[in-house]
From TrEMBL:
The keyword Membrane applies. It is found in: Cell membrane. It is a multi-pass membrane protein. Gene3D superfamilies: MFS general substrate transporter like domains (1.20.1250.20). The chain crosses the membrane at residues 21-46, 58-79, 171-197, 233-252, 264-284, 296-313, 319-338, 350-373, 385-405. Keywords: Cell membrane, Membrane, Transmembrane, Transmembrane helix, Transport. This is MFS transporter. Its main location: membrane. GO terms for cellular component: plasma membrane. It comes from Mesorhizobium mediterraneum. It holds the Pfam family MFS_3. The keyword Oxidoreductase does not apply.
Length: 547
């Protein structure tokens, strides 16, 4: 990771801006976001005017979020195996292509609801590529202690633009028409493409070859599934996305049917949403000091529920604007808190994949929520949809009891140095399966502590790639314990050890302190061979000191 200047002991909210690379890409991203928000206002209002279906209006939100659900996991594997900088570049090129095509289509007078949804889907594919790579790159560009401030700045920056972009979009739409809005969006997409092209940052490369995509995705899913903090945060995000997207998905209908207003009011209300998010972002550090992260996220869900309920009951534009400011505050606090929790709980080797799984499930929740609340509005009433979403958000707040968002901890998640052991055979990367055994001598009074550390070790080793992990106690010598695990190939064994962080290896130090042998525990490695008649296979065993 790089840092241009020495950092203070405690990271300030604006500290990431001292890094030139982060500052450049952050600024370009806000320019692009401004164009995207102007375009979003134009698309949503255009859809509301050319389609009589409430569901089609709500699906505008789903069109850009659904690709994130389908493609993010694949994109995360790409971000962890290839240059994150070029993955970001490709993502923004897709977004620019969608905006340019939409501009040309509107200019030629060829526009339809399905074309709008299709190009929104293409832009969503660009976001699916860019977002995991950009958020994972924050840990490459900045020091770990600056990650919470950087993620907050990314959310605050977007919501600063959100407080201006929608109102600007409403004015442009009312005065100049949708073509001007789409042209602005197409031009603004050039800013991040230029910034990424001009900037570079160092990334610690792995000495091992790239993983196959299927293996990389499998390893990312396994790590996420075995990490309690990431699993709980991701589930919470999916539920929140499903319920809270009702605010943005149904807002065009609230403006059109309930407030009896036009695009300018729609833009003003979206600006209120963004302003609330901006204020919450600037006060996020203070809020984290006065209450726990889990409780803060629960309060944020309640704030969004109040927003939904207020929109369902009011016909006043000022009341709706205040309600949306409250909803925007809850929106930013929730997504910032969960995003940072996932980042800090993820080692660098897998952070792109854990973030992509989190994005995929949260985007899937938002896409499903757009369809659900749009269907409720169409088949019942807009008021029923907003009231139902408010009730769902209260349930999401209560879900914090069983799905808590853990406190942010700045543990060392960098992969530690690993030196491959010397072996007596000429092993190929695909040679295997490999069996590893480690023997410990543990006195009776240390057994409980030993088993506690072994439970942690099993979790650490298994999520890094160990298979069939077991612990055996010798019946003839009860003080002798043997830890055994397998990897499918020699390359998998090397990957496992490269993935272990310094924090992971602290468990090994605790086990070493309980070992009572004269020599430290030895790791015995074997390669499995069958006794098939056609092939002649030998088995070899070699030892190395434990890491």
């Amino acid at each position: 990771m790089q840092s241009e200047n020495p950092q203070p002991p405690v990271s300030k909210t604006l500290a990431p801006f001292r890094n030139k690379v982060f500052r450049s890409i952050w600024t370009a991203t806000q320019i692009s976001s401004l164009g995207w928000l102007v375009q979003t206002v134009a698309i949503s209002w255009l859809m509301a005017t050319i389609s009589a279906s409430d569901l089609m209006v709500a699906l505008v939100q789903a069109a850009s979020t659904l690709p994130v659900f389908f493609l993010s996991v694949f994109a995360g594997a790409i971000a962890d195996n290839f240059s994150r900088r070029w993955v970001m570049f490709a993502g923004h090129c897709l977004i620019a292509s969608a905006s340019t095509t939409l501009m040309i289509s509107v200019g030629l007078g060829f526009v339809s609801p399905w074309l709008i949804l299709g190009l929104g889907f293409l832009a969503g594919c660009g976001f699916a590529l860019n977002d995991p790579a950009w958020h994972a790159s924050v840990g490459d560009i900045l020091h770990k202690r600056d990650i919470p401030a950087a993620v907050t700045l990314m959310s605050v920056g977007y919501n600063i633009v959100r407080s201006v972009g929608p109102a600007l979009g409403g004015v442009i739409l009312a005065v100049f028409g949708p073509l001007a809005a789409f042209a602005l969006a197409a031009v603004s997409d050039l800013a991040p493409i230029s910034a990424i092209w001009r900037t570079k940052w160092e990334v610690r490369s792995s000495p091992l070859p790239r993983e196959r995509m299927t293996t990389a995705i499998h390893d990312g899913v396994r790590f996420t599934a075995m990490s309690l903090e990431i699993r709980a945060a991701t589930a919470r995000a999916a539920l929140f996305g499903l319920a809270s997207i009702s605010i943005l998905a149904l807002l065009p209908l609230v403006v059109r049917d309930q407030l009896k207003s036009g695009p300018i009011v729609y833009g003003i209300l979206l600006a209120g949403f963004g302003m609330g998010a901006f204020i919450a972002g600037m006060g996020n550090g203070f809020l984290r000091k006065v209450t726990s992260q889990n409780r803060l996220v629960a309060f944020a869900s309640v704030a969004c529920a109040v927003c939904c309920l207020s929109l369902a009951l009011t016909s006043s534009v000022p009341v709706a604007a205040i309600s949306l400011a409250l909803g925007g505050a809850g929106w930013l606090i929730t997504w910032t808190g969960i995003d940072v929790s996932v980042q800090l709980a993820s080692p660098r080797w897998v952070v792109g994949r854990t973030l992509s799984i989190y994005y995929a499930l949260s985007a899937g929740g938002m896409a499903a929520g757009s369809w659900i609340w749009g269907s409720v509005a169409q088949n019942y009433s807009l008021t029923s949809a907003l009231e139902g979403a408010a009730g769902a958000l209260l349930l999401v707040a209560a879900a914090g009891i069983v799905l808590p968002v853990r406190p942010w901890e700045e543990t060392d998640q960098e992969s530690s140095v690993f030196h491959p052991p010397d072996v007596a055979l000429d092993l190929k990367p695909r040679s295997g399966p490999i069996v590893a055994k480690v023997e410990y001598l543990i006195s009776e009074e240390n057994i409980e502590a030993f088993l506690g550390y072994m439970r942690t070790r099993r979790h650490v080793q298994s999520r890094a790639g160990a298979r069939n992990w077991t612990l055996q106690r010798n019946l003839q010598t009860p003080s002798l314990w043997t830890e055994t695990f397998r990897t499918p190939t020699w390359m998998d064994f090397l990957r496992l050890n490269h993935r272990l962080t310094a924090a992971d290896k602290e468990v090994g130090q605790h086990l070493l302190s309980l070992h009572e042998g004269e020599l430290p525990p030895q790791t015995v490695l074997s390669i499995e061979r069958t006794t098939e008649a056609i092939r002649t296979r030998t088995s070899t065993i070699f030892s190395r000191p434990p890491r």
